[in-house]
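WARN no homologs supplied; continuing
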Amino acid sequence: MKYDFDKLTDRTCSHSLKWDCAPHELPMWVADMDFETAPCIAQAVSARAAQGIFGYTVAGEEWYSSVIDWWKARHGWQIRREWLILCTGIVPAVTSMVKRLSNVGDEVVVQTPVYDIFFHSIENTGRRVLESPLVRSGDNYEIDFADLEQKLSRPDATLMILCNPHNPAGRIWSAEELKRVGDLCIKHGVTVISDEIHCDITAPGCEYTPFASLGREYADICAVCLSATKAFNIAGLQCAAVAVPNKFIRAAVERGLNSDELAEPNCFAAVATSAAFNGGAEWLDEARKYLFKNRADAEDFIFKNIPSLRPVKSNATYLMWVDCSAVTRDSRRLVEHIRSATGLWITAGDQYRGDGAAYIRINLACPAARLADGLQRLKAGVESFKN
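OK structure emitted
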């Protein structure tokens, strides 16, 4: 490989959210990679810093063209410039859009288990979470379309937050599945917020389908959240975009993002994103190979050494969703024990609702040596929990 993903960069004492832990602990929880970002990004940020003036900043044409060119080349979706609205992050954008695209007391449909911050965006703004649980089918999850239609047809259900690809299940929804979701939303007058932040972290040879690329009728009911932050490990630079083809939805979204003061970039945000999309493709492709080698190694280790755990098959994200129901259906108690006994810090699945109480989530985005350490700690923690 051209890039060194085995490098054990020391992130302690760096005000890292992930690494704000005790010296003996190993954090494998929050979705933050332990890889240094693509050199082209570091160079672009350094060059910008060398100017020495950090005043108010706008995105610039390079940012727009980099986003447009990336999605056309990588994902076959032609985004128009006027659809794009820059924002400081997908989470604040989702919260802002929930406020603008629904009313207090409305129900917002989500497919659980799902990224827990969606619940905060809904409930903290006076809306109600309406769960349409995904169902386990073998080693994967499927959409229960009968349940989904029942939820979308409710009179107070006005909005759906779609996770595409899905976090934490790591599921890439097919074009056919997305069309069925879209058809139901069209039928019942429900607007879609599609969070596509994990779209570039797919297994080599696997591709995702942007929801808005399905056709004009689907593009007309949605706002799509896009960002380089997850794929290139630059979340701290706070840059994302919302692509909104429908001019009426776009006007509401843009007013909300501006009134919530979320549409002004810091001086490094657009620079880093442009560098990622213009020069980071080779780095990302190598990172994906490394990440999915990590996943294969983790699955193999668990099958051989911790057979009471059962990883869910996944072809997206660097997060492993693991069924621990043969050990306990109280994953909160399990992860607290593992952390106390071994120092391994992973995530309890109950916070993602649905059937999450019987699962744990493990971040695999780290050098292989660190992953091996984490897996040995996982084995020791599960064994001591059972004893």
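The longest strand covers residues 157-163.
OK
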